Each structure stands twice: as C-alpha cells, then as structure tokens.
Amino acid sequence: MSIQATRAYAQNHDELCNSIMANPANTMLVEGHMGSGKTTLLKMLGEKTKYPTFYVDCTTLDLGDIMIPKINRLEGEDFVSYAINEAFGLHFKDTPIAVMCDEYGKANTSVKLGLTKFLLERTLGNYKLHPKSLLFATTNLSAEGVGDMLQAHQCDRITVAEMRKPTSEEWITWGINNDIDHNVLGFAKEFPHIFDDFRDVKNPDDNPFIFHPQAVGRSKFVTARGLEKASNWLKVRDKLSDNSLMGNLIGTIGERGALDLMSFVKLADQMPRREDIIKDPKTAKIPNSASAICMVVFSALASMDREYINPWMDYLDRLGDSDAQALFANGVRDGKYNKQSLVMTNAKFTKWSRDNNHMFASDKK
Fold first, then answer.
1. What is the β-pairing status of strands 67-74 and 98-102?
2. Count of Cβ atoms closer than 10 Å to residue 314 Cβ
3. Considering Cα of 231, then 236, then 237, then 240, what sign does the dihedral take?
4. Spatial distance between the Cα atoms of 63 and 82, rounded to a whole number of angstroms
5. Is a pLDDT exceeding 50 seen at residue 365?
6. What H or E segment, with its residue span, contains residue 57?
7. Average pLDDT value for residue range 65-86
8. What does 206-217 look like in DSSP terms, one character per residue?
9. Phi-psi region of 345 (alpha: psi -120 to 50; beta: other; left: phi over 0)
10. Which of 151, 221, 163, 216 is nearest to 42 (CA)?
11. Can you give the CATH number for the domain in which 75 is found?
C-alpha cells in the first residue's frame, strides 16, 4: 500500500480500539505521530473491555528481560524451561487481558526477534495468551526520523495501521472529560492548526507550532501530550511567578505555543468564577470577547455537577450569543460527554432545548 493510501485510511482512536477488539487473532502495529496518544489506546481498551491491562516498554528491554532460563529436574534428568517477564501478563492463563508493546519500532534488534513469535502466535516459551486477549504494538511514524524501523518479515506477521492525529474538536471533547484547563481548551479551539500533520506542511515556517523534521532548532513543539502537560502547569500557576510559568510552558509546548496560550490566560479576568455563577447567575459577569465566552462554556462542561446545573442554565440565557449556547448544547449532546445524563435529565436544560430547537435544525437535514 502506498504512503498516500495509508494516510487516506488512517484511523482515529475509537476506530483503532474497535479494530483491535474485533479481531483478537491479528496483532496490530499502530504507527502514529509522537505525543498523539498512542499509549491512550491501552487505557481505552481496558475501559471498554474491563480486561486487566499490561504495558511493555520495548525500549527498556534486552533479550534477557523477556524470559530467563531456569533449570528443572525431572526423574533425574535436568532440562531448561523459561520464566517469563510478568509485564506480558502471561501469568493470567485463564483470563483475557490487553497487552501493549510500546515503541516496538525502537526496540533492540534482539528484542524484536525475541518478540516476533509473541506478536504472531501470542506465545512466549510455554505460555500462551488467552484466545480472547488483545495484543497490539505501537511505534512512531518512520517519516519523523526518530529511529523506528522494521524489516519486511516482521511487518508481514502483523497488521500495520496508521493512527491519525486528533482534530481540534475531538481533542477538546477528550479534554472536557479529562479535566484539562479551560485556557488550553480555548487555545485548542482558536488554533486548530496545532493538530496539523507535518506532512501537509511543506515549509516548516508555515506552521511554527508543530513538530517538523525540517525545522532546524525546533526542539519543543505542540503535541496532544504536551497540551495535557501545559494544562498541569496552568493548574498550579498561582504558585509560580509569571516568568516561571512562561518558561515552563515554553519548555513544554515550545515558544510559539506558549506565547499564544498565555494570551488565553490573560483573558481570565474577563471570566466569572464558578462560585459567582452559583451564588447569583443573574449578576455574574459576562465576558466581552468570543474567546473568553468559549472558555466559560468549556469550563462549565468540565466542572458540571448537580449544584451547578441550575444556576448555569440561568446564566446561559444571559450569554445571548447563540454560537456559545450551541457550543454548550452540542458539547452535552456529544456521545462521549461523561456528564451527559446529569445535564439532559435536568428540567431547565430540557425546557431550554425545546425553546431553542431552531439551533439544531441543521442536524435534521
């Protein structure tokens, strides 16, 4: 398959999880951009299947770390058997599990050879995975030039699939459900090109946010993983000087990303506090910029609970901006929103939805 065809049929996280679960007999090798959430697939599989999960970091292994010989004696004769590294989960003989061999493409040659039979036949020594167990491997795109290489016979034993980067909307949905700081969510909405594929950017200067193999000296850049780490810094910004916060963000998502992200932090003064909305939704401040309004909506979606829903619905009416109200409604209606039931069963939200049904007319076409 050509590179163009591989990219054309690149899958997102949900599609890859479904592929892995649908066909346990075939081991998949997931190729994807650095920091794009390949490791998240194991967590998603565990949540979907309730299987115990096992993570194997192939870059830290030598051949002797996979299994070691031990001498046994039977009827006066010595023979060699093998003790298997528990990281592979093969001690769960009667239970299906999910196993990820991370960074397989960067493993030592001896380790790749040692794992060849495991990826093909799901066995190591005399141990075999439960037939319903899920096994997959991950590696970076070879075009990134970070040392991921496989030989033809190794590729022939597995199904190789590319994982595409998340879109801005997909990542924001994930971020709302995973306690990402609202400033980062606003940044992701305002700058969707931080999720661009470098292969679509001929000149690296055209997108100074992302990794690009031709960008000389660009050692830090924006990735999905970096955005989560940037969120962690923003959550403790009250303990840091402005200088420290900026320096830490530059060291997390690069200079350009940090500068633009901080512009959202400066919008914080326009935003009402959650406590203000709960106390008096009729007088809590209304932001005067579209970006700040979006961040208020993202913050509400992420922090929603039974105490907040009624005053928030009163406050939402005051926003007036139909785009902002639709942003909230569509966030609630997204099938992945983990507080959907709480909001949709609320009487004020139900009435508001009926009164504003015209906002969603396009969905019915």
1. unpaired
2. 15
3. negative
4. 13
5. no
6. strand 53-57
7. 83
8. G-TTS--TT-TT
9. alpha
10. 163
11. 3.40.50.300
Q: How far apart are CA 62 and CA 104, in angstroms?
A: 12
pLDDT tens digits, one per residue of 272-324: 999 999 999 999 999 988 889 999 999 999 999 999 999 999 999 898 767 88
Positive or negative: CA dihedral 34, 36, 42, 43: positive
Residues 7 and 73 occupy one common structural domain: yes
**How far are the Cα atoms of 158, 167, 348 from residue 352, in angstroms, in the given order?**
51, 29, 6
Helix axes 168-177, 224-235, angle to 10 degrees: 40
Q: Give the span between the Cα atoms of 365 and 305, in whole angstroms.
A: 33
- 209 and 71 housed in the same domain: no
205 and 289 inside one domain: yes
d(CA 17, CA 41) in angstroms, rounded, equals: 7
Q: For residue range 151-200, what is the model confidence (pLDDT) as tens digits?
A: 777 777 899 999 999 999 999 999 999 999 999 999 999 999 999 999 99
Task: Give the domain extent around 308.
Answer: 168-213+266-364
Q: What is the pLDDT of residue 148?
A: 63
Q: What element of type H or E holds 362?
A: none
- pLDDT at site 363: 45
Q: Report how far residue 304's alpha carbon sits from residue 340's, in angstroms, rounded to the nearest whole number.
A: 10
pLDDT digits (tens, 9 = 90+) for 107-150: 998 998 899 899 999 999 889 999 999 999 999 998 887 666 67
Two tokens at 282? 């009729």
Predicted confidence band at 364 (pLDDT cuts at 50, 70, 90)? very low
Q: What does the radius of gyration of the chain's CA atoms come to, in whole angstroms?
A: 25
> Does residue 314 fall inside a structural domain?
yes
Contacts of 181 (CB under 8 A, 6+ apart): 230, 231, 234, 235
